[in-house]
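[step 3/7] inverse_fold.run input=structure_tokens len=342
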């Protein structure tokens, strides 16, 4: 066993796929999740894929007392991957206080307990939203950070600042912020995937649920952006590729290969696809016709963003391997299993 990794938000979409990749690489995984956007069925899916069910603790890490009790019990954590956060851009515009309390408070609590018990390594789930609407594309890690377009994006900016300040103050703390672009898809086995509670805030689960007849139609937010087809452009990345980047980031710190106490990396494919291109690719790959309509822009959305992944490719030795077709195919396979049509 390589070591014990705490995965906060580990029954969520990205967290569960990362748990699988960690277990496959020989790590022991411990999960904390409050199940606000997931279910314990995910643990069964992880076990089906890996043969191992991670130990699981249900609580919100904003609860300082429960977090302290957890670390009193689990004394041999080698590193933390911190996913637990609220993540819907539109909701953050409507409920900013919820996002500031949950996203910032949870990180502060974790860092305090890490310092108390001597855990030295954290991978932080960041986002390309920290760049705001960049003046130049593609974005590199040196691209100037613009004002956030949403409270969600602002929490990620603030959390990265907190990490930078904390690593300066505590020289034995190492953190790596992975700035994701747009994770989609599902594990090839279809045992785990993206299954948000309630109405999906992200495009691809809305596509798959509409295709499955669970939603009447897809809303395409905005058709008047300065893009080739007028719809917003995003850099979609397969969730399994993203999960593997977390394993590499953990290993980098545990093995002492990091070059600074705080590092950040863009995790994307380097290719941007518009919302309409993504919808049409899903139709093409899966032979399904989708019902969609153009509606007004959604508050908080940026026009277009995609990554320059050169630094992550060269420094981490990581590269996205799965393309948009596999993203759309695996997402649909997962949705069919969820609705019992596989």
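[step 3/7] decode complete -> sequence:
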């Amino acid at each position: 066993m390589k070591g014990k990794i705490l995965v906060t938000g580990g029954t969520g979409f990205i967290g569960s796929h990362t748990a699988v990749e960690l277990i496959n690489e020989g790590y022991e995984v411990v999960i904390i999740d409050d199940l606000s956007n997931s279910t314990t069925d995910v643990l069964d899916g992880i076990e089906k894929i890996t043969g191992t069910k991670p130990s699981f603790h249900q609580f919100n890490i904003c609860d300082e007392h429960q977090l302290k009790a957890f670390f009193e019990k689990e004394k041999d954590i080698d590193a933390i991957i911190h996913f637990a956060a609220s993540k819907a851009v539109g909701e953050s515009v409507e409920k900013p206080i919820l996002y500031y309390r949950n996203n910032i408070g949870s990180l502060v609590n974790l860092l305090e307990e890490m310092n108390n018990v001597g855990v030295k390594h954290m991978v932080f789930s960041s986002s390309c939203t920290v760049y705001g609407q960049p003046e130049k594309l593609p974005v590199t890690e040196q691209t100037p950070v613009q004002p956030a377009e949403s409270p969600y994006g602002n929490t990620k900016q603030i959390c990265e600042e907190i990490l930078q300040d904390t690593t300066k103050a505590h020289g034995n703390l190492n953190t790596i912020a992975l700035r994701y672009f747009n994770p989609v898809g599902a594990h090839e086995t279809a045992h785990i995937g993206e299954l948000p509670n309630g109405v999906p805030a992200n495009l691809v689960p809305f596509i798959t649920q509409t295709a499955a007849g669970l939603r009447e139609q897809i809303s395409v937010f905005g058709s008047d952006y300065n893009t080739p087809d007028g719809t917003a452009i995003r850099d979609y990345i397969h969730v399994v590729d993203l999960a593997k980047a977390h394993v590499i980031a953990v290993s980098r710190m545990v093995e002492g290969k990091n070059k600074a106490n705080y590092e950040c990396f863009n995790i994307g494919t380097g290719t941007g696809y518009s919302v309409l291109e993504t919808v049409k690719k899903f139709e093409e790959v899966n032979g399904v016709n989708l019902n969609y309509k153009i509606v007004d822009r959604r508050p908080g959305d940026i026009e277009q963003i995609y990554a320059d992944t050169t630094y992550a490719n060269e420094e981490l030795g990581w590269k996205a391997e799965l393309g948009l077709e596999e993203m759309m195919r695996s997402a649909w396979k997962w949705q069919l299993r969820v609705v019992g049509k596989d």
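[step 4/7] annotate
The chain has eleven helices and 13 strands.
The chain has a mean pLDDT of 96.
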